[in-house]
Amino acid sequence: MLTNDHPAGELPGSGAGRSYQVRTYGCQMNVHDSERLAGLLEAAGYHRAPEGADADVVVFNTCAVRENADNKLYGNISHLAPRKQADPNMQIAVGGCLAQKDRDGLLKKAPWVDVVFGTHNIGSLPALLDRARHNQQAQVEIEESLREFPSTLPAARESAYAAWVSISVGCNNTCTFCIVPSLRGKEVDRRPDDILAEVRSLVDQGVLEITLLGQNVNAYGVSFTDSPRDRGAFAALLRDCGRVDGLERVRFTSPHPAEFTDDVIEAMAQTANVCPALHMPLQSGSDRMLKAMRRSYRAEKYLGIIERVRAAMPHAAITTDIIVGFPGETEDDFAATLDVVRQARFCAAFTFQYSKRPGTPAAELDGQLPKAVVQERYDRLIELQERISFEENTAQIGTRVELLVATGEGRKDASTARMSGRARDGRLVHFTPGDAEPRPGDIVTTTVTGAAPHHLIADAPLLGHRRTRAGDAHAAGLRPRTVGLGLPPVGRPIIEETTGCSR
Question: pTM for the full model?
Answer without folding.
Answer: 0.84
